Give the backbone structure.
Amino acid sequence: MARPPLARTKVLDAFEALLIDEGERAATLDATAQAAGVSKGGLLYHFASKEELITGLIDRLDELAADDLEQMLSAPGGPVDFYIRTSVLSGSAFDRGLIAAGRLAQSGHASASDALRRIRQSWADGIRPHVRDDTAMELVLLIGDGLYYNNVLDAAVGSGSGLAGPMPTGAQLDALIALTLKAAS
Amino acid sequence: MARPPLARTKVLDAFEALLIDEGERAATLDATAQAAGVSKGGLLYHFASKEELITGLIDRLDELAADDLEQMLSAPGGPVDFYIRTSVLSGSAFDRGLIAAGRLAQSGHASASDALRRIRQSWADGIRPHVRDDTAMELVLLIGDGLYYNNVLDAAVGSGSGLAGPMPTGAQLDALIALTLKAAS
DNA sequence: GTCTATATAGCGATAGAC
DNA sequence: GTCTATCGCTATATAGAC
């Protein structure tokens, strides 16, 4: 558990990349094995079924989410600033995991939807004490959701390792965060 | 063009319902034909390929989007109120089209992502004159995106004709709209 | 305009050699 | 632990009867 086999990680990374770059339909066992540089048999030694492959991805996402939450709670600018700022994708491992899970959720994999809901709830719990009321919390969360969704749509097919949307950056993002904080605090 | 063949509409409706209720993967030609009550050959007479089926759905969505935009611009409570209020799904034909297009976009169909981007831009143009600045417009748009995305995730697999998320309703929604208007106007 | 039958390819998964 | 070979199934699409 402390040090997963290299091949396992390579397969998981390849599966994740295919989900992000080409969609759930293209993320087949064949394609994943090829992208990871192993044979299909080799892949199926580590993940006995496609369902196990998905579970592996979600487990990894849960760990990254726990790290992210810790960072959010101790962020210098406060949780709200951290939350919104990091909702604009940076291409981090956590971002990639979230997008991949989003693709799976939209394709009808309940375990992925559940994981995303779980993570969103942990954000809600972390943000609630720092805003005025439930409505303000909902507003903050929804802005993050909106940013995330737009980036997810833009990370679509054929954009290579595509993580660069037309969403607010730099000064625009700062202004958006300032306005949100003003409305929510 | 004024009156499309009945079978065409039935097929389009069935395809859309499958996309929403069971995901892109389950929305096969076989399943669509069966749900529409025609044979696969019959379906393929109207839509010569799956790509044409998708195009048909998006064309229909574009028409519904034009109607929606008109309603938004002449809404009694103003475009912002209308926009946010209708971002919580009601199960309208437009809502269903948007979710179906979202599923296709996430599965890597560029034409669907393009349509969604186009529609979002038309909302932006309609809302811009009614808010303080670009940051305020972005905030409003993102809240709608967030609501939409959450509902889309919840409209997932196995929820029947599933359009009923845990998103704000009634008084909660009114409060959210009031807060948004306060921040943006 | 709608059907049945079929061609072709790709899917997830298994078996067994190395 | 990784490979090749193959099974059984389902996908999109075509051909041609009615």
Notes: Residues 5, 7, 38-43, 45-46 of chain B lie near DNA strand C (CB under 10 Å from a C1'). Residues 160-165 of chain B have pLDDT under 50 and may be disordered.
